[in-house]
Description:
- By secondary structure, this protein is mostly helical.
- Helices cover 62% and strands 6% of the residues.
- The chain has 26 helices and six strands.
- Strands 1-2 form a two-stranded antiparallel sheet. The chain has a two-stranded antiparallel ribbon with strand order 3-4. A two-stranded antiparallel ribbon has the order 5-6.
- A hairpin with a 6-residue loop joins β3 and β4.
Amino acid sequence: MANDTTKLQTKLAHIYFELHPSLQKIIQLFSLIYAPIDKNSFVSCLSKTGALDEKNKPWGTKTLSPQIDKLLKAGLLVQESRQGAECHPLLTEVATRHAVQTGQFEILVTAVEEKLPIRTHWNRDSRIFYNLRQCIREIRIGIYRQDLSFINQQIEDYQKYSDSEEKIVIENIFEQIYNNPFDADWFKTLPLGLYESGISSILFNSALKLSASEDALTLLEECSNSNSEKHCSDYLHLILIEQLLLQGCTQEAQESLERVSNEYQNNAAIFWGWLSFLRGENEQAIKYYKDALKAIKKATGKRQIYFNTIGGLFFILALLKDGSVQRLKEAEEYTSLMSRQGDHWLRFTYGRLNMVLQVQLGDITQKQFVVSGHISSVEEENSLQTLFCSLCLYWMDAESAKKRLPNLLEPLYRRSLVSGYHWLAMETAELLSRLKPSSNYNKLAPALREDSNFHSIVDLIRPQEAWEMCLNALANLQSRPQTSLKPELELRLAWFITFYPSVVKFTREDDSLD
């Protein structure tokens, strides 16, 4: 699929660069408009640029119409029924970058903003966007002007004043602009702020979608290894470290962490914690995470706050591995906090971990929600959600996992391996080896783990029979501090055990002693 897209993009770019400059300018204008537009409106916009046709005459509807039809036939423009034409999505950034390179960009932008203006509030400068594509149009203009403050203003205006209910996901927008296609030479012309946002968005999406990102990663590695580069920062070091950990490169991750400046070590602590946990140094991992969380609370002045990155998941696993009621309760509070954040990309994953923690703490009723819950496939483009929710099901009900998970996990394993995310591939193979004990995954998982010195997370919780789970829950309930509305009141707790042919049912009854 990715190869087909790359081939088509290469083909369209080749056709575009073979066009007469007058036709290239038409494509460039379409790329900046970034939306379907009727021919009359387009002619008006094109005339504003002073563009001339191949005969050096101003464009008119009669001369432009057949050219647009030819460009549609060639696939450079696309058109849905009852809508105007627009630039092919795979050609949009190619054409806009060419406009920048040939000095046409500002002329075209001026025409677009005059003839197709964004509505503004009557008493302030803030913009009101009709839809998300309008906002993306302006973000693109900001990126190619290298104006980070302008970009941030468009995002803020959309979030505050947009007429559209469509949510803006910044990482996805940046990725579709910066990586369509990835151009290392163009990337190197960007100021540090845009460079950081571009690289981080590309690699973030690469990890979730398990898509190829070798060129972006290579550029990041070059910059991180050269302190003389203008594109070298502690933030970029952390982006690289995240990728290295997901790829299973422990030694390289440690070396990169050691290059982070002393002033940035509070931000690096979460990655030290992640690395320590994967190496089996659980107490050290928890210490790093607690230090990192303390620093975030101090910096933000917020008490109810948690990590916003992938590494935060591994603090929960470290607390889960510890297994004490105090640490389980702590993890439950963090996952509860994150699962309530409606727009967080890991909300669903934290919600599922929260259910597992509640079971561990004594609430057996949460098990059925884990077992019956949806697990996204790799096609839904959140690899971490697929893996972690699969693990939660396996921990809660191994038999159900054996029936449901192989068809979800085998594509995840293959795509993780191909895209270079060997830690994901290793953990997926490890889980598959439990689900399909007679399969080849028993050999694949150790082979992937051999060079990484990672401890697998699959056996963090041992799947238990229903009766074992009940006894464990009872023990944890007994260990948890009990609270009462009336401290002076004494309580009597009675457990009634009823034996059925295949299960043991516990019921609890409390009453007060006067």
